[in-house]
Amino acid sequence: MENQELTLLSINDVQENSRLEVLKNYGLDAEITDLAILTGGRHKALSEKEIEGPYWIRDSYFYDGRPSFTNSGYFSVMSPTFRSLNVRPVLKNSPKNITFRRIDDKDVIETDSGEYPQNAPSKVIQAILEAKFKTDKLSKTGNNYTFDSTGFNNKNSKFNPVTYDEYIYQGRKYIRVMANIDYKYDSVITLSNGETYRNGDYVWVEVSPVTWLIDDKTGLLISKKSLVSGITFLDENISYDGDFSKTNIKKFFDKYMLKDMFPDELKIMTKPKEDENIKIEKPYNFNFDKVSEDEIIKGAIESDIAVFLHGPSSEGKTARVREIDPTYEEICLATASIDSLNGKSVYSESTGKISEKKPPWLERLEEKCEKEPDRLHIVFFDELTNAFPSVQGQVFNIVLEKRVNGIWNLPKNARIVAAGNETKDSLAANTMVESLFNRFAHVYIKTTTEGWLKWASEHNIHPAIYTYIAFKNGATLRTKYTGIKPNADPRKWEMASKMLYATGKPEMIRALVGEDITNEFVHFCNQKVITLEYVLKGNCNLNQLYSLNTSEKYATTMGLTRVDDENLETVRNFVKNLGPEFVAIFDALWTHGDEKRLERLAEAKLIETPGGMKI
Questions:
Q1: In whole angstroms, what is the distance from residue 259 CA to residue 267 CA?
Q2: How far apart are CA 39 and CA 204, in angstroms?
Q3: Count H helices, E strands: the chain?
Q4: What distance in Å separates the CA atoms of residue 558 and residue 531, rounded to the nearest whole number?
Q5: CB-based contact 224:213 (threshold 8 Å)
């Protein structure tokens, strides 16, 4: 990238008698990007998807102190402060080791080099990105792009920079741009995604490789498209003397566009001064997003690292293993013997020899792994801290060597997960020896209200319990264990759900969660609420809705968050009748921060009825 430079085409490059060979074959017209339209570029539609527009030339065609531009082969001049002409950059000193492509019908070769925001993605992706942006769910890449923010009705011709951060979503990069269009010329603009926008609207634009047409004779790379607009050629009251280096466009190229287009290459080629500290940014292309405990568990399993799940009873350690591998092989080490773990020595009277027999759990694991070689299968050593030290020692050998009894190797697609209680949580728990402890990746499980509600909505937990826990914001999800009276915990609430389904009597659950919580639960269940089933059947009317007090509206909203993907639009549109604050509660509880649900919610917002359901 050394001596890299951006410029514009010259008059000689485009005039008929001296035109560059590549432009003779390809033509002078240039499509413009959605970004160019959003930054005010003049344009016209050539087809449903192809839009072109006039672009600046770097010298004066008529030599009258005004810069020139080309429009479909015609040349004219324009005031140097005009903002609506597009910028079609030319790259001097092409990069080395570039890959060429031939456009057969044009007898032209092209290449991709550098990246720049260009076209707007679909309406659905727009909504997803906007939803994630507003909930701070998008990651920044560290790159950004700068344009001119001066409005078209502003007579000031000075460059007023506005910088937009680059975000990444599902491996693609985007920026969020505010439309700055000449609304006297275009009150509404239509982009390549078929959607219309107005001045001041925010639009997501995808960053993609820049395609260049290559001129063999000069070595110039000419951008296939006009990339941006809104840049004045010169400030007001300045005549153009033909010195392109003094123009606003050239300053924009050198200060902003070149580094925006080739950020990594420029970091390498820029030599710091001797008194500057060299700072390397993101040298390993890591993703620095925060990760959940579940993501760490999955990451350790995929990396073939044994993982140990810590946490008190009922925190859902086994459930997490089951979510990853529903057919996992479980060994309860609290009751295991060395023989049940390692197998047995069997004497054969016919041969007079002793042979080793595999333990049944290993035979079952091998059968699963052989039957499904493309899947990872888990062997789950539960209650490891409750095992005898001698059994822990045998587990250490399995974890260390991936071998049982020093004889049989674990299948290649087998993975080890273990779990146990802390000594402070169980009188029967033993401390793991250091050598065993250090063989695991350690994950400390603590059930959050949000996590439990997400799990409950997916596992048919009784709606009354789900709504009550949501209404209490998790305050009664777990209560202190005294050993005297029943206490509440996630597992107890699962049992209470089964009891409610079986008996329909809320008073029954005091045997599980205690009398005080049961009394409060009974009072909560006596409130008037509109149930999910009632809404889906369309039985509700406005009088019923307006008769609810604030507490009942909260309870109704929380109960409705059990809705599945298929009926989301119907229920969310109903919640609108309760008011915007309840819609916000519904959205937060229904998504639980889940990526797929955030995307589904964004889709729902696009097609729902404005103003709420008519009931």
A1: 9
A2: 13
A3: 24, 27
A4: 10
A5: yes
